[in-house]
Amino acid sequence: MKKIKLEILGISYSQSQSGAYALILGESGKKRRLPIIIGSFEAQAIAIELEKMKPSRPLTHDLFKNFASTFNINVTEVVIYKFSEGIFFARLVCFDGIKEVEIDSRTSDAVAIAVRFQCPIYTYESILKAAGIVLQDEETAANPKVVVKEPTEKDASYSSLTLSELETMLMAAIDEEAYEKASRIRDEINKRKKSK
User: Fold this and answer.
1) Secondary structure (DSSP) of 11-48
2) Which of 75-79, 142-146, 155-159 has the lowest mean pLDDT?
3) Which CATH class is domain 3-131?
4) Boundaries of CATH 3.10.690.10 in the chain?
5) Strand-pair partners of 75
Protein backbone atom coordinates (compact mmCIF):
# COMPACT_ATOMS: atom_id res chain seq x y z
CA MET A 1 0.00 0.00 0.00
CA LYS A 2 1.35 3.42 -0.99
CA LYS A 3 2.16 5.77 1.88
CA ILE A 4 1.12 9.44 1.78
CA LYS A 5 3.41 11.98 3.44
CA LEU A 6 1.86 14.38 5.96
CA GLU A 7 3.09 17.69 7.35
CA ILE A 8 2.26 19.29 10.69
CA LEU A 9 0.23 22.39 9.83
CA GLY A 10 -0.69 23.51 13.32
CA ILE A 11 -2.19 22.90 16.73
CA SER A 12 -5.27 24.73 17.96
CA TYR A 13 -6.97 24.83 21.35
CA SER A 14 -10.22 22.89 21.65
CA GLN A 15 -13.23 25.12 22.29
CA SER A 16 -15.52 22.28 23.33
CA GLN A 17 -13.25 19.74 25.02
CA SER A 18 -11.46 21.08 28.07
CA GLY A 19 -7.73 20.38 28.01
CA ALA A 20 -7.78 19.02 24.44
CA TYR A 21 -6.19 20.29 21.25
CA ALA A 22 -6.61 19.64 17.54
CA LEU A 23 -3.41 18.58 15.78
CA ILE A 24 -3.74 19.41 12.07
CA LEU A 25 -1.78 17.26 9.65
CA GLY A 26 -1.93 17.99 5.93
CA GLU A 27 -1.12 16.02 2.82
CA SER A 28 2.06 17.51 1.35
CA GLY A 29 1.18 20.04 -1.33
CA LYS A 30 -2.52 19.12 -1.36
CA LYS A 31 -5.76 20.35 0.22
CA ARG A 32 -6.56 17.34 2.39
CA ARG A 33 -6.28 17.73 6.16
CA LEU A 34 -6.27 15.17 8.94
CA PRO A 35 -7.43 16.71 12.26
CA ILE A 36 -6.56 14.62 15.33
CA ILE A 37 -7.74 15.47 18.85
CA ILE A 38 -4.86 15.18 21.32
CA GLY A 39 -4.22 15.90 24.99
CA SER A 40 -2.63 19.05 26.35
CA PHE A 41 0.61 17.33 27.40
CA GLU A 42 1.21 15.93 23.91
CA ALA A 43 0.23 19.25 22.30
CA GLN A 44 2.76 21.01 24.53
CA ALA A 45 5.44 18.41 23.73
CA ILE A 46 4.92 18.88 19.98
CA ALA A 47 4.75 22.70 20.19
CA ILE A 48 7.90 22.97 22.32
CA GLU A 49 9.93 21.03 19.77
CA LEU A 50 8.42 22.84 16.76
CA GLU A 51 9.24 26.19 18.37
CA LYS A 52 12.76 24.97 19.25
CA MET A 53 12.26 25.78 22.93
CA LYS A 54 14.54 24.02 25.39
CA PRO A 55 12.95 23.11 28.75
CA SER A 56 15.26 23.09 31.76
CA ARG A 57 14.74 19.34 32.19
CA PRO A 58 13.96 16.80 29.44
CA LEU A 59 10.31 16.06 28.79
CA THR A 60 9.19 12.42 28.39
CA HIS A 61 9.57 12.52 24.59
CA ASP A 62 13.02 14.12 24.93
CA LEU A 63 14.00 11.30 27.31
CA PHE A 64 12.78 8.75 24.74
CA LYS A 65 14.94 10.39 22.05
CA ASN A 66 17.98 10.59 24.33
CA PHE A 67 17.56 6.94 25.34
CA ALA A 68 17.17 5.76 21.74
CA SER A 69 20.11 7.85 20.51
CA THR A 70 22.33 6.55 23.32
CA PHE A 71 21.77 3.01 22.02
CA ASN A 72 22.09 4.02 18.32
CA ILE A 73 18.40 3.57 17.59
CA ASN A 74 16.88 5.95 15.08
CA VAL A 75 13.17 6.49 14.43
CA THR A 76 13.09 6.61 10.62
CA GLU A 77 9.36 7.28 10.14
CA VAL A 78 5.96 7.39 11.78
CA VAL A 79 2.99 5.72 10.10
CA ILE A 80 -0.63 6.42 11.00
CA TYR A 81 -1.95 3.07 9.84
CA LYS A 82 -5.49 2.72 11.19
CA PHE A 83 -8.60 4.75 12.02
CA SER A 84 -11.34 2.93 13.91
CA GLU A 85 -14.28 4.31 15.93
CA GLY A 86 -12.77 7.80 15.97
CA ILE A 87 -9.33 6.62 17.15
CA PHE A 88 -6.11 6.85 15.15
CA PHE A 89 -3.42 4.18 15.49
CA ALA A 90 0.26 4.80 14.73
CA ARG A 91 3.58 3.02 14.77
CA LEU A 92 7.18 4.10 15.02
CA VAL A 93 9.56 2.53 12.51
CA CYS A 94 12.92 2.16 14.28
CA PHE A 95 16.32 1.12 12.93
CA ASP A 96 19.46 0.28 14.90
CA GLY A 97 21.77 -0.18 11.93
CA ILE A 98 21.04 -3.91 11.71
CA LYS A 99 17.31 -4.49 11.88
CA GLU A 100 14.11 -2.53 11.51
CA VAL A 101 11.43 -2.81 14.20
CA GLU A 102 7.93 -1.32 14.33
CA ILE A 103 6.56 -0.15 17.69
CA ASP A 104 2.89 0.58 18.34
CA SER A 105 2.18 4.09 19.65
CA ARG A 106 -0.55 6.59 20.34
CA THR A 107 -0.62 8.96 17.40
CA SER A 108 0.02 12.04 19.54
CA ASP A 109 3.13 10.46 21.09
CA ALA A 110 4.31 9.25 17.69
CA VAL A 111 4.09 12.78 16.27
CA ALA A 112 5.89 14.23 19.33
CA ILE A 113 8.69 11.72 18.73
CA ALA A 114 8.71 12.31 14.96
CA VAL A 115 9.42 16.03 15.41
CA ARG A 116 12.34 15.18 17.71
CA PHE A 117 13.86 12.71 15.26
CA GLN A 118 12.95 14.97 12.30
CA CYS A 119 11.49 11.96 10.54
CA PRO A 120 8.58 11.89 8.09
CA ILE A 121 4.97 11.15 9.07
CA TYR A 122 2.91 9.00 6.72
CA THR A 123 -0.58 7.62 6.40
CA TYR A 124 -2.59 5.71 3.81
CA GLU A 125 -5.28 6.72 1.35
CA SER A 126 -7.88 4.72 3.31
CA ILE A 127 -7.19 6.83 6.44
CA LEU A 128 -7.49 10.10 4.54
CA LYS A 129 -10.74 8.92 2.93
CA ALA A 130 -12.20 7.85 6.28
CA ALA A 131 -11.05 10.73 8.48
CA GLY A 132 -9.64 13.46 6.27
CA ILE A 133 -11.29 16.69 5.29
CA VAL A 134 -10.74 18.50 1.99
CA LEU A 135 -10.30 22.25 1.71
CA GLN A 136 -12.58 23.69 -0.95
CA ASP A 137 -11.43 26.25 -3.47
CA GLU A 138 -11.73 29.73 -1.96
CA GLU A 139 -14.55 30.66 -4.32
CA THR A 140 -16.67 27.61 -3.37
CA ALA A 141 -16.00 27.92 0.35
CA ALA A 142 -16.82 31.64 0.37
CA ASN A 143 -20.18 31.13 -1.38
CA PRO A 144 -21.99 28.19 0.21
CA LYS A 145 -25.31 27.39 -1.46
CA VAL A 146 -27.08 26.44 1.76
CA VAL A 147 -27.08 28.42 5.00
CA VAL A 148 -27.16 26.11 7.99
CA LYS A 149 -28.08 27.03 11.54
CA GLU A 150 -25.69 25.67 14.15
CA PRO A 151 -27.11 23.22 16.68
CA THR A 152 -27.81 24.93 20.00
CA GLU A 153 -26.14 23.80 23.24
CA LYS A 154 -29.38 21.99 24.15
CA ASP A 155 -29.09 20.05 20.89
CA ALA A 156 -25.31 19.52 20.87
CA SER A 157 -25.51 16.66 18.37
CA TYR A 158 -25.77 17.12 14.64
CA SER A 159 -28.41 14.40 14.33
CA SER A 160 -31.21 16.83 13.49
CA LEU A 161 -29.42 18.16 10.39
CA THR A 162 -29.59 16.72 6.90
CA LEU A 163 -26.52 15.26 5.19
CA SER A 164 -26.46 18.23 2.81
CA GLU A 165 -26.53 20.68 5.74
CA LEU A 166 -23.73 18.78 7.47
CA GLU A 167 -21.58 18.85 4.34
CA THR A 168 -22.09 22.61 4.01
CA MET A 169 -21.23 23.07 7.69
CA LEU A 170 -18.10 20.96 7.20
CA MET A 171 -16.90 23.24 4.39
CA ALA A 172 -17.65 26.35 6.49
CA ALA A 173 -15.77 24.91 9.49
CA ILE A 174 -12.76 24.14 7.29
CA ASP A 175 -12.88 27.64 5.81
CA GLU A 176 -12.87 29.09 9.36
CA GLU A 177 -10.01 26.71 10.27
CA ALA A 178 -12.24 25.28 13.03
CA TYR A 179 -10.71 21.84 12.54
CA GLU A 180 -11.99 20.27 15.74
CA LYS A 181 -15.56 21.20 14.82
CA ALA A 182 -14.90 19.93 11.30
CA SER A 183 -13.73 16.59 12.68
CA ARG A 184 -16.95 16.21 14.73
CA ILE A 185 -19.07 17.01 11.68
CA ARG A 186 -16.99 14.63 9.56
CA ASP A 187 -17.57 11.87 12.13
CA GLU A 188 -21.35 12.44 11.98
CA ILE A 189 -21.28 12.32 8.15
CA ASN A 190 -19.21 9.11 8.19
CA LYS A 191 -21.56 7.55 10.75
CA ARG A 192 -24.54 8.22 8.50
CA LYS A 193 -22.82 6.93 5.38
CA LYS A 194 -21.91 3.68 7.17
CA SER A 195 -25.48 3.13 8.35
CA LYS A 196 -26.84 3.28 4.77
Assistant:
1) EEE-SSSTTEEEEEEEETTSSEEEEEEEEHHHHHHHHH
2) 142-146
3) alpha beta
4) 3-131
5) 94
